[in-house]
């Protein structure tokens, strides 16, 4: 009994599965209502808006913040009643990488649903 | 001069059995642990994230946004104007619900917003931004 043809086939199968499989772990952020700044504010909940300018800097209420400041502001806001809606407002030049960093930051602070908005104008 | 004749065991393939065992184990590992790659219309390097753990789930519609703003729905490259129509075609095939946006990390937010607006124009859909989950940055 010769095992060589069996080994050939098994190697080919192995090669196929090695090349065709992917071990990348995907995940995703839900993107809540978007649009311009006026269009979505329909409910009464206050909005906590974190603005991202074109250089990637963070602003809350017009004040420049560091990332740890943002984490603190957001954590404090999560204990408020009524809880505000969290909005990330980004300039057109901000990269997706930076937006994901901020969504990451919010998610680590405990925000489950952050909306993404375009800076008007 | 001594000539070693092949013994009876050497003439069979019995010594290959451990090799086959290992190869079978590797085969089973790749069959069970891997998921099949989805072919991509162009290279997209999605941003890394630590905390999002949304599940990709079954059979979503993929929208690719590449460097330079290139757009594709599943395997088909489209322009921004054709995107809502393409998504409606997908919806007509019974694939309603989730649209996953696979945007390159370098794409600007302006382009992302354009794409999101176009997706929402096609039908009310749940939009998600796909990231590459890593343990820590």
Quick description:
The complex is a heterodimer of chains A (about 120) and B (about 140). Chain A has about 120 residues and is α/β, with parallel strands linked by helices.
Structure description:
The complex is a heterodimer of chains A (121) and B (137). Chain A is α/β, with parallel strands linked by helices. Chain A has a single domain, classed as Nucleotidyltransferase, domain 5 (2-Layer Sandwich), CATH 3.30.420.270. Chain A has helices at residues 4-20, 67-78, 96-109, and strands spanning 21-22, 26-30, 47-52, 58-60, 63-65, 85-90, 114-118. In chain A, a hairpin with a 5-residue loop joins strand 3 and strand 4. The longest helix of chain A has 17 residues, at 4-20. Chain A is elongated and about 80 Å long. Chain B has helices at residues 8-11, 17-33, 83-92, 109-122; strands spanning 35-36, 48-49, 61-65, 71-73, 76-78, 98-103, 126-133. Chain B has a 6-stranded mixed β-sheet with strand order 2-7-6-3-4-5, with helices on one face. Classes of the chains: A alpha/beta (121), B alpha/beta (137). The interface between A and B is large, with 44 and 53 residues.
Query: What number is the mean pLDDT of chain B?
Result: 81
Count the helices of chain A. How many? 3
Shape label of chain A = elongated
> Level of helix content of chain A?
25-40%
Strand content of chain B: 15-25%
**Poorly predicted ranges of chain A (pLDDT <50, ≥5 residues)?**
34-41
CATH class of the domain at 48-133 in chain B: Alpha Beta
CATH topology of chain A: Nucleotidyltransferase, domain 5
Computed structural class of chain B: alpha/beta
Order of helices and strands of chain B: HHEEEEEHEHE
Structural domains of chain A: how many = 1
How would you sum up the global shape of chain B? elongated
Largest sheet of chain A: 5 strands, mixed
Distance between the termini of chain A: 78 Å
Rg estimate of chain B, integer Å: 24 Å
* Strand portion of chain A: 15-25%
Largest interface: A-B, 44 and 53 residues
